[in-house]
Amino acid sequence: MVENTKKEIITAVELAKKQREISVSEFFTKNRHLLGFDNPRKALLTTIKEAVDNSLDACEEAKILPDIYVEVTQKAEDRFLVIVQDNGPGIVKEQIPKIFAKLLYGSKFHTMKQSRGQQGIGISAAGMYGQLTTGKPIRITSRISPKKPTHYYELNINTQKNEPDIIKETEIEWLTEHGTKIEIELEAKYQKGKQSVDEYLKQTAIANPHIKVAYKNPEGQVIEFPRATKELPVEPKEIKPHPHGIELGILIKMLRMTKSKNLGSFLTSDFSRVSPAVAKLICDKAKVDIKSKPERIPTQEADNLLKAIRETKIMAPQTNCLSPIGEDLIIKGLKKEINAEFYAATTRPPSVYRGNPFQIEVGLAYGGEAQTTPDDEKDDLIRVIRFANRVPLLYQQGACATNKAIVTTAWKNYGLSQSRGALPSGPVILMIHMVSVWVPFTSESKEAIAHYPEILKEMKLALQEVGRKLAGHIRKTVKAIQQTERINLFEKYIPELATAIAQLSETDKKTIQTNLDATLHKNLKELIKNGESQS
Ligand SMILES: Nc1ncnc2c1ncn2[C@@H]1O[C@H](COP(=O)(O)OP(=O)(O)OP(=O)(O)O)[C@@H](O)[C@H]1O
Ligand SMILES: [Mg+2]
């Protein structure tokens, strides 16, 4: 027994020597796949995606119509230079090093507001990946006004400390009045097709009809994505958390950090939808004094508070904080990038999961170019394009809630064939979009949406709405085809019929044929008209 205890102490001391803090940068250096840098092809896409998403967020926050330039140049067989430049508000000098060379530093994590970025990792992770694979620092040029100088920085991340190392810092001449340009050299692979940079930009143009993008690819081609509207999306509003979405750890943190002097004002001012009457109800139920100082509330009382919150009826969160694309602009965006035969869209009313407001929209393009599947896909299944807060999601389709919603919808009802548990078949590009103040991604690389029942339900309702519109169109076209076939059949027999009648009635065959033709077409026109008004 004594022998054993001695051994245990020695082991604990040995282990203690190895126990130390892990910096977030070291963690993500080892786990780069969690951030979307698991292979060179994906690394190129993720880098551009993080930079472009940030540019669009910044422009929209500053109410500037985004004008983005993206360039990818091949430097060596497996090495590329990425340049992304925007006409956004620019970045204040002091903030530049931390934004680009410190993980978990950003303006969006603590706010409940619909935006593309949410974690504060994106762009610094891209810079860190470039630094790890090429040894080159990230280069930033930024200016906040024509009256202010342009700052140029070269930055590395000190991964042990998760702090920026400034390699170069200077003022330069720049023709741009305001905006930001980033340059990252990285190990990468360029390839067109389904999960490419080209596809990401095309899909971004569909979901963001208000942006203009010029893209120079490594082959030197310049691809322009024009604007379809000059109107910026409605600005999403920032909201406070809804009490029903809160977890104990967060409640305790909020109690410690609040500026409110007592529990009552904490509940009414740090949360949405809590009136003084509701606050009193919660406190009474939890048997905690409404006048208590929030930072003094012990964990057990916080737990009681949480239980009381969950048992109290509270008005649902306000949903005017969301900014969906809208049915008209979804169709405009699809028309701009896909030349199809029929388009439909639907935007569902807002709903709530875990206290977070969200909204689902679905768009659909049928026939025409929607028929051509990208080269790497040989099947005739529909193509799905997924978006979260207007950002295309190109990886992990199978793990995404959108996929489950699509395969569990009965597409046979809407004129498409479908095998059990599979995507339906047909010449369709199906767009599905979720907007929320917090999109529940399954990982930090923001590729797939988690399977919350409320989200799945809304997705299915949106798919059904669009499905019904598609069914109407298919019915109409099928009918039109059947009617044309019928006309052709009649036409084939008219000469024979005319000969027979001419012989019987001793009338001129030509006159009979002309009359029969005229009657047929008149009647068929009526038929088609009736068919259309029925469907
Ligand atoms: N082009 C830009 N113009 C203006 N501000 C920017 C630009 N790029 C980044 N920022 C600022 O830098 C912050 C950090 O960006 P970063 O991409 O690391 O995180 P994020 O966008 O907040 O979240 P995510 O990790 O989900 O992308 C942003 O929150 C934003 O405030
Ligand atoms: Mg970002």
Would you mind describing this structure in some detail?
The protein is α+β, with helices and mostly antiparallel strands and 535 residues long. The chain folds into 3 domains: 25-225, 2-Layer Sandwich (Heat Shock Protein 90); 243-311, Orthogonal Bundle (Helicase, Ruva Protein, domain 3), CATH 1.10.8; 319-535, Ribosomal Protein S5, domain 2, CATH 3.30.230.10. Helix content is 40%, strand content 19%. It has helices at residues 2-18, 24-30, 40-61, 96-101, 122-134, 197-207, 248-257, 263-270, 276-286, 299-311, 327-337, 401-407, 453-505, 509-534; strands at 67-76, 79-86, 138-143, 150-158, 163-172, 179-187, 212-216, 222-225, 342-347, 351-353, 356-366, 383-388, 391-393, 428-436. The strands form 2 sheets. An 8-stranded mixed sheet has the order 5-4-3-6-2-1-7-8. Strands 9, 10, 11, 12, 13 and 14 form a 6-stranded mixed sheet that branches. Helix 9 packs across helix 10, helix 12 runs parallel beside helix 13 (453-505) and helix 13 runs antiparallel to helix 14. It is globular and about 120 Å long. It binds adenosine-5'-triphosphate and magnesium ion. Adenosine-5'-triphosphate binds at residues 50, 54-55, 58, 86, 88-89, 91, 99, 106-108, 117-124, 180.
